[in-house]
Amino acid sequence: MTGLITMADLTNEDIVEVLDAAERLLPAARGETSMPLLSGRILGNLFFEPSTRTRMSFETAMKRLGGDVVNLGDVSTSSVVKGETLFDTIQMVDGYTDIIAMRHPRQGAARYAQDAARVPILNGGDGAGHHPTQTMLDLFTIRQAHGRLDGLDVVLAGDLRYGRTVHSLSHALARFDCRIVLASPELLRMPPEIVEDLRAGGASVTETTDLYGALDSADVVYMTRIQKERFADEDEYVKVAGAYKLHAKHLGEVRQDMIVMHPLPRVDEIHPSVDATRHARYFEQAFNGVVTRMALLCRLLGVDVPGGEA
Predict the structure, then answer these.
(1) What domains can you pick out in the chain, each with its CATH number?
(2) For 149-190, where are the E strands, in sequence order?
(3) Edge-first strand listing for the sheet containing 68-71
(4) How far is 56 from 192, CA to CA, in rounded Å?
(5) Of these residues, 54, 60, 97, 141, which one is catalytic?
(6) Catalytic residue among 55, 64, 130, 131
(7) pTM for this model (two decimals)
(8) What's the chain's average pLDDT?
(9) What is the pLDDT of residues 87-117, one digit of tens each?
């Protein structure tokens, strides 16, 4: 693999192999053992828009594996403000590092960066496009909870229009024959081309505005926040802000092993009362970003994880 730009870069077999490698890396991710598999390697973190979990988990992942990290830092203090192009930035960082993790506000920027780079690029989110490393940690979390990926009932809820996490995840779930319910306000429906693509591939896809009515039959409920920063018109944002607010009281009739996930940060779409329930998995999900990104770093750098092939 030269990089991971979208989930199309991974076969189903690749996905399972990465998740299996992540399982073997859990002790190292927790700091219980040392596995310096990437000693002497350097990760370049290029984040052109704000990030907490993705940036920090990439840095933690590389350091848990004995490697090192160089960060772009605040874009406002970089040469980007002097007019340096993305192509030139990538060419420069390419010479400093062995692999690059990048987030950029422009959809398609990660693909462009991979075309410009000699080292592998890991797409950490490109505008409203794709976020495949988030999808991998989401799949890891789902498999941890249910012991499988195949044939689950999954509700994706909230901002499905701009949410790159659900764009990537929906395609991956469809490949594992999951039944997908898309719950959102009308203004924030999944882009029609994505829905058409999912259905053309044979996926079971239902669209609804009734999140609460979809809870009882779900194995996974994946909440997302309404992304104010993606709206060009603030009046449009006001129309949908706070559309869904999941409380513990809504979980009385759900399946015992149903899990609630969220890519975080949350605003008010999951009430803190949910945190203490057996269903909450979003903080474990955030930790899983470390171990799955460890597995991906190893795979893209051609390093086998002990205990089997990565």
Answers:
(1) 7-130+287-300 (3.40.50.1370), 132-285 (3.40.50.1370)
(2) 153-157, 179-183
(3) 68-71, 42-47, 99-104, 121-126
(4) 33
(5) 54
(6) 131
(7) 0.91
(8) 90
(9) 888 998 999 999 999 999 888 899 999 998 9
